[in-house]
Amino acid sequence: MEISQDMIEFYLSHVLDLAIAIHGAPPEELRGYDRHIAEMAEKASRSGELDILRRGLEHILCTPELAAAELSQSAYSWSEKEVRRVLAYIRKQVWPEAGEIDQAEAAACKLVPQSLSAWRQREPEEI
After folding, report:
1. Rounded Cα gap, residues 31 and 60, in angstroms
2. 120-11-64 Cα angle (round to 5)
3. What does the DSSP 8-state code read for residue 15?
4. H or E stretch at 112
5. Burial readout 88-108 (b: 16 or more C-beta within 10 A, e: otherwise)
6. How far apart, in whole angstroms, are the C-alpha atoms of residue 42 and residue 28?
7. How many Cα atoms are found within 13 Å in the side-chain-facing hemisphere of 71?
8. CB distance 94 to 42 below 8 Å
9. In a 3-state reduction of DSSP, which class is residue 65?
């Protein structure tokens, strides 16, 4: 399954980049992201992209060679460890019933360079 990297970055910006814009640095505790995560999940749900977002996050979490820190557009210099820690927390908060990541499903996904507008204009069968 191909997933737009721009779509993933768009939703992650609501958590990673907004936290930096508001506080100047990442929150000291992960729960400091809770409000931003809830807003991100609501937007993804309204757009019908919540399940695809989960699959994209799981793909990132299961693909250590993927540069997760590059998904943030903020001026803050995120480390891979920081970003992956936040992504795991997002997954836990939004999908608490999800359990372990299905490695085969995560491996079947691929982030592709596709604009958010092109992603949203695709046919549902293309997912």
Report:
1. 21
2. 105
3. I
4. strand 110-112
5. bbbbebbbeeeeebeeeebee
6. 24
7. 29
8. no
9. coil
Cα 80 from Cα 78, distance rounded (Å): 7
Q: Report yes or no: 71 and 60 within 8 Å, Cβ to Cβ.
A: yes
pTM score, whole prediction? 0.91
CB 126 within 8 A of CB 1: no
For 99-121, the pLDDT digits (tens) are 999 999 999 999 999 999 899 88
Give dist(CA 110, CA 55) in Å, integer: 10
- Domain boundaries along the sequence of the chain: 2-126
Give, to the nearest 10 degrees, the angle between helix 80-94 and helix 34-46.
Answer: 60
Split at pLDDT 50, 70, 90, the class of 68 is very high
The reported pLDDT for the residue numbered 124 is 61
- Spatial separation of the C-alpha atoms in residues 51 and 92, rounded to whole Å: 14
Among 6-15, 38-47, 67-76, 85-94, where is mean pLDDT lowest? 67-76
